[in-house]
Amino acid sequence: MFLLMINCIQNYNEIPNNNPDYNDDYYNQFMIVVSLFLIIPSLYFLYRNSPRLLNVTPKANVIIVDKKISPDENEKNEIFSEMSSCGGFIPYLRKLHKNQGNNVTSGLPYPNTISVVDPMIVKATLQVGDRPIELFKFLEPFLGNDNLQIHDSKRAVEFRKVVGSCLGHDVIVAKYPTLRNLALEFIERWEKVVMNDKNSIIKMQEECLEFSLRATLNVIVSSNEENLDVKTYKKSYDAVLSGLFDKQFGKLDTLHEERFQESINYMKSVTCKLIDQRRNELKTNNEGENKMKDLFDILVSENDPHTGKPFTDAAITHYMCGYTMAGYHTTGTAIPYTIFAITQNHDVQVKLREEIDKTLGGRLPTFDDLSSMEYLTQVVKESLRVYAPASFVARLLKSETILPAMDESKDLRLKANTTILYPIPLYHEDPKFFTQPEKFDPTRFSPDKIKNIEPNTYCPFGFGSRICPAERYALMDIKMVICLILQKFNVKLAMKLEDFVIEERFVNMAKNDVLIKLELRSN
């Protein structure tokens, strides 16, 4: 185009001055070329920046969030210090959102990151499956530098296709009797404690964490506890998780660093022994092909869809640790939180016990019983709203994107490689989404009211393409234990209400545990 314009200028200068026809013709050609030279590039730049490329209809105003927020070390230290004074990351985000509104674009310790409390943005990003690698880099010592948390969306989908059946309905139903027997072991333990001393206090969080770890291992590894020292395994696991949390904030001293590494080595050695044992079992089991496979079976016997080759021992170890970590603390804290909520709402405890007694008539609950008890489901869902174990969900936008916001007069334009944080508790406690959010009200999830909950505002298990694959298993687990406890006991809080303090670790945990007094029911 530029050469054509130069050529026209040269031709125009060579036209005889005494020939007006030639002057007009060349003048017209010259102006057409000049116009094209100016208009076509303009159209290109306009179109390139048009929201049409992003399949979003532009609104009256677009907020451009394209500033690279890269706090230096001093700024990060100041932010982490303020986070500590606020009581953690979620309380800090709560403060930022109060000052900045639904979309927080400054004051975050991570570069190119925003935090949103906006169901429209959740809806627009439901199918985004990429996660920010840097945010999960601190997990590398335990889960490796190629762990499940940072798989891109395509690889995550491929992996889920291979292992998806291990947490499916049929597997959960098949595992249910074993899991119920495990829960009954704890119920019988507590019954003996109470019969020996009626004033005994149960550390419900500590107990439920042990149950959750054992149950999770049973589901994904089919662990034979004769071959696995669960108490030592749990002690090591807790040391690893505590070390990882402290390590990311530079709080891991030399002594705890040594214990941290020892615990990681122990857990990896245990997993390697289990891998060898499982491979031998599959070789000698003639019915191996027809067996309902758990996660461990799949990893040991199938190919990695990413490489097309068998999963390496290192990959199996990292996947097993990742799945165990995801299921361990979440369910282990959700159960005691639900018990705590029941102690604070006598009418809920009475109504829930009536449903349990009417449904079961004194017998043990079946898998189908748990599904049929509507009020039990409502209580558990409301507990997960008020006391969500998970803190936030994160997604990475790899390309420039325009997102619609709650304020219909504004859109958000985000540059490529922007991380979005979705702080789960802030959705659950927003009065725009839940009336009187501080009130524990299970009827929010009743059949006639659940339709009033705005979509994409309730997300205890995350959302979209990376939602927790064990959601059904977790709900079953929580409902089963709550049901068994209330069949046998009345529950009362055995600590001052002000001592019930939630702190952030890998999940939102009760700092002082959840101390419960159990009273044997007279019937």
TrEMBL record:
Stretches that traverse the bilayer: 26-47
Keywords annotated in UniProt: Heme, Iron, Membrane, Metal-binding, Monooxygenase, Oxidoreductase, Transmembrane, Transmembrane helix
Cofactor(s) listed in the protein's UniProt record: heme
GO MF, one annotated term: heme binding
Binding positions for heme per the UniProt entry: 468
Superkingdom to which the source organism belongs: Eukaryota
UniProt family annotation: Belongs to the cytochrome P450 family.
Name of the protein this chain belongs to: Cytochrome P450
Highest classification ranks of the organism: Eukaryota, Fungi, Fungi incertae sedis, Mucoromycota, Glomeromycotina
